[in-house]
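Pasting as-is:
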Amino acid sequence: MEWLAAWAIDGPARKLALAGPLRDARAVDVFGAMVSAAKDANGVRQQDLGMSPIYFSGSGDDAALEQCFRAVAARKL
């Protein structure tokens, strides 16, 4: 199983829509504890991102994963 890490390095809390290849992903924190995501008005799970990484299970091609993060990316480094 592959894991993908995500966090917000710039301080403000962000939300990641768990759609596409992340739709059925499990999420765990840095201690391995399961993290739950709230659903938005459309029923899409939204994961809060902060300074500490959240790890998501699953996989997908790079283009599909990039779509998932496009809405939360502030800029490319």
